[in-house]
Amino acid sequence: xxxxxxxxxAAHAVRHSAxxxxxxxxxxYDFNSLCAAVTAxxxxxxxxxxxxxxGWENVVLETADWIYRFPxxxxxxxxxxxxxxxxxxxxxxxxxxxxxxxxQRARFAAYRKLLGDxxxxxxxxxxxxxxxxxxxxxxAEFLTAMHGSFDAGEIDRLGIPALGADSGDVPEPMNLNALxxxxxxxxxxxxxxxHRRWIAGSVPGPDVVLHNxxxxxxxxxxxxxxxxxxxxxxxxxxxxxxxxxxxxFEGDSIDxxxxxxxxxxxxxxxxxxxxAAITAxxxxxxxxxxxxxxxxxLIKAVERWGDPHQ
Length: 310
Hints:
The protein has about 300 residues and is of the alpha+beta class. The chain folds into two domains: about 5-110, Phosphorylase Kinase, domain 1 (2-Layer Sandwich), CATH 3.30.200.20; about 120-305, Aminoglycoside 3'-phosphotransferase, Chain: A, domain 2, CATH 3.90.1200.10.
């Protein structure tokens, strides 16, 4: 990109995007308020089949053809995500959102829905080793391309942050007394392992640009078991160790996680610490439970952690 200014680069993603940051956040994230925000733009949007989807960073109105994506607060790097999407367009082995327009009265991005099949664990578990490896290879190919898409100058100009010197998600000390007593021993063991692997800096590098929200609910497949057809949600992009981008597969299938790691190492020539990826996701589950006060997911996860098939 040379010395291209980041605002000009972002403008390449969305026509007339000089006002990207000027639109305010919506006042409310309920279904009716978001529909009103879209229709206020006078784009003749058909919301007759729209449904509401909620995530940590964004709330989405989804129709059969369109996604209208609203950042939850000013901490969500809305402009940076648009610039990142512009940089990645056509450079990855799967489709990524191509933002068609952005709200001028309210802050949101509109893009055509990425179509494909959702991952189904039961189908995966019935599949042959060769079919499992084909899916894992496709996922690893995407990550390899993603991790090699930015040089140091682009990282600086885009303002992509780092997770930390060791690329682990280094949290503040957790109050395990906030957890039910029967899950505290498992949680304490996870935190000790997380410290040993991530805080101590033993996870292999080098640091790369991570998707950082790479999981099976943020992508679609070209068929029941792949290859990967489309990937979305680039609002959490950071710089960190490659291992960190595999953590969420711990919650779906450790078998798939292990296969992705193997294919990634062969394709990218970088090491993956599977145990560290598993620990990173489990620590995040514990942190989310403490932050939200909702223990059901953690209790289910602790039960699952003893199941080698998951």
